[in-house]
Every structure is written in structure tokens, then in C-alpha cells.
Amino acid sequence: MIQDNHAYKDRFSVQAAEYRRFRPTYPPELFGYLSSLTKEHTAAWDCATGNGQSAVALASHYSKVIATDASSSQIQQAIRHKNVDYHTAPAHNNNVDDSSIDLVTVAQAVHWFSHRQFYSEVSRVLKPDGVIAVWAYHLPLVNPETDTLVEYLYATMLRPFWEDEIRHIETGYRDLPFPFIKLQTPQFSMKANWNLREFTGYLETWSATAAYRQKNGRSPVKEMMQPLQKAWENPESKKSLSWPLILMAGRLKEENMPSSSRKK
Question: Are 42 and 63 in contact (CB under 8 A)?
Fold first, then answer.
């Protein structure tokens, strides 16, 4: 049974500019793969678009991309593209026509949603042969010394500041409600080459980091700076980072299709 999450909380508006600047980007191969799953390429809906990076990538494959986010600050910071229409809207109400969307995507966000409401909206807007794809990533892989420090920051310093929904990422979305016909998907990873300033900028965008700053009046990342600098050695050197993606894709079950779209 799909359980509804709590009402929307704005976790990212405060650091919207930093989110756009310091979040890693998804591999182009991911969007090529997702595009290959749909017969038509008329319209895609990128829900919880954040800084719009997925929406812009989808615009290379679909004639129109509707990109929504419940945070107006995120929409204001989003990357502009002539084929992307941005709107401030909650996940469960995107105000588009029934059975009009070829692909629905959610990057690093579906674990926050009210799943019953969102999946009902997906069933309404997807074409009968459309696809939904949701993905997320957990901790970055840098080197053993840095990875140990990041794990300490994540699991010890910030543990009280993570909301319950983060468990879905920790368990690889295994327990995430997903009432669709699941597809077998390949493995993708995000890659980046960052110096220490870029890396710590990314750590500052975590929702738990923001909650820690709000309560304590200081940054937990700055408290970790000395050991991070030691592990990084030269702060200006670029290191290779990777984030394996957790990806689920699926098609509508016939019982979840609008009655007008069901087989007669």
C-alpha cells in the first residue's frame, strides 16, 4: 500500500543559488537511454526540477519539456532553454492535459513526495505507452580518506538533521513505493572533477547541512575543513568524483490508466 508522506517542506530554497552552482550533473547517456524507452518524443515532464539540469538535458530529446518545482526560488535560478517551460507547482498538480506526456522524470526528489498523490498525477498525465523514471544518488566516492570523512559528516554530525525520507536513498530505493511495471535498467554514474572548494560547496547544499547551520549558527562543513584539507592535500588540485545512480523506470499498469486509455 502506498503511504503518503508529510506535506511539502521547502528544504532547498535558501541555498537555491548554491544548489545550481555546486550540484553535480547527470550523464548525457542517462537521457539518451530514457529517450529510447518512449515511442514518441512530444512532451516530457521533469518534476521537482530544481536547477533545471534534467529538464534542459531532456530538451535535446523531446519537443517540449514541462519543468515544475514547488520552490519558486529554485525556478528563478533554473537554467533557461527555449524548449523548457518552467512553472512553480507541487508534485501532485502540474496542470497539463490527460495522457499527454511521454516521459515523467524525477531526479533526487521522489523520496520527499506524497507518493499516493504524485503517482495518481503520473497516471493521469502519462500516455498509455509512456514511461516514468526516478533516480537518486548517495555519497560521492573520492578516495578512502575523504570518503571516511564524508561518511562521518553524513552519519554522525548530521544524523539528527536528516529527515526520515532520506532512508529511501540509504536503501537504494528498495522500499520506495513504485506502482508501475518495472523495467530493467543499466547502471549510470555521475562524474565530476572538483577542487576542494567545489567539493565543500557541494556538501553545503545538503538539506541536513542547512538544518545544522540554522540550529547552530555555523557550518558543519567548516568544522570539518581541517581534516578535509589534509585528506585532499592540495586544495587546488582536481580530484575525480563519482556518484552511482539509483534508477527505477516503469510503465503504467492497465488498472492505473485513466479509463479512456484502457484497452477495450
Answer: yes
Instruction: Return the amino acid letter for 95.
Output: N
What tens digit of pLDDT does each residue of 16-52 get? 456 567 788 999 999 999 999 999 999 999 999 998 9
> DSSP H helical segments within 23-166, as ranges?
28-36, 53-58, 72-77, 115-125, 144-152
SS3 string, 34-68, reads HHHCCCCCCEEEEECCCCCHHHHHHCCCCCEEEEE
Pairing relation of β-strands 181-182 and 239-251? antiparallel
Query: Which run of H or of E encompasses 225?
Result: helix 225-232
The residue among 40, 55, 35, 34 whose CA lies nearest residue 101 is 40
pTM more than 0.85: yes
Q: Is residue 50 a contact partner of residue 109, using CB atoms and an 8 Å limit?
A: yes
Total residue count of the chain as it appears in this document: 264
